[in-house]
């Protein structure tokens, strides 16, 4: 979650206030042990149809072997850990604006949901999530019996 405000002076607000917010966020993160909001990758979640969802996580510059996806106890965990050899590549950069810090995202999966596919393409990690609700657990209408006739409710 990034803090964005509309301003008549966008250059001033971005440099003065956004930097202060990031510093405060890092300070609280050090105190609580949580990951700073700014260091977590952005994501989109889309409902494709009644049973399918698409989760896109922005991970520019990450490789497949640096990312891990796992489901544990109804939670979907996505984490990224930098390769050790990247520390040698730190020399010569004038500015590095693409965040490459380790991260961990967690999502609660709905019951009967599973990740059916994952692919990394153009800096986006795309996960297809399928939710298959058994017929026995789907909502159903119950007819109300009357002495003379049966009243049915139609969905």
UniProtKB/TrEMBL annotation:
SHSP domain location, by residue? 34-147
* Domain of life where this protein originates: Bacteria
Which residues belong to the signal peptide in this entry?
none
Q: Which PROSITE patterns match?
A: SHSP
Which keywords fit this entry according to its UniProt record? Chaperone, Stress response
- One Pfam family matching this protein: HSP20
Q: Which family does it belong to?
A: Belongs to the small heat shock protein (HSP20) family.
Q: Under which name does UniProt file this protein?
A: Molecular chaperone IbpA
Q: Which organism is it from?
A: Kosakonia oryzendophytica
